[in-house]
Amino acid sequence: MSGVSVLKFSFVLMMLLVFASQFYVSVTIAQVSESEASSALTSAEGAVGSAYQAVLRAEEVGANISSLLVQLNDAGELLAKAKVAYRLGDFDEVVRSASLCSEISESVKNEADELRVEAYGPRVTGFWLTFTGSLVGVVAVGFGSFWGWRFFKKRYYERVLEMKPEVSSDES
Questions:
Q1: Taking the model in full, what pTM does it have?
Q2: How far apart are CA 50 and CA 109, in angstroms?
Q3: Which of 66, 88, 102, 156 could form a disulfide with 47 if both were Cys (CB 3.0 to 4.6 A apart)?
């Protein structure tokens, strides 16, 4: 081989390696993006589930959750959009939609927790008021019964002692 042909061969081989490395780098980046998209999708699913549970807990104590349901519906739509994008291979859209979904879900969860605390406060106050009133009522009835019993017992003894016994004779 002559020096020129070795040089041409080296140049062609170098160009081939450069083009091949571009392909391998883009495939590697796509795999990282796919794993990031999968992670973002999983995180969004967990956030929506957590927000849903928080809304249920708020509803159980009587909070008004109508606005939260609208936001939760929006988060669900974004999650569905992210899942469709994942199936289509649009990983950038998956990450974007999943991130928005997670943000809305966290906001809903925080608002639901605040509403639950606000709705739960009066219930706790009402419970303690009822408990205290019942306790005072039971104590009052107990003492009233005891003092009434003592009063009637004393009066009964006084009446018995004031009675004049009569002697009767039984002749058979």
A1: 0.57
A2: 7
A3: 102
